[in-house]
TrEMBL record:
It comes from the Bacteria. This is YflJ family protein. It comes from Piscibacillus salipiscarius. InterPro entries: DUF2639 (IPR022580).
């Protein structure tokens, strides 16, 4: 898995305990949305 890929963002979000966002599984979002979500949750 490459850093910055969709799978990488999904695994990083799951490592911090996030599996759902706004009632949808995080796997259903695209990589750019996941990147923004990860950035927001790390702050």
């Amino acid at each position: 898995m490459y850093i910055g890929s969709k799978g990488w963002f999904v695994s990083e979000l799951k490592n911090i305990g996030i599996s759902y966002h706004e009632g949808r599984k995080i796997e259903s979002y695209d990589a750019s949305t996941l990147a923004n979500l990860l950035e927001a949750k790390k702050k």
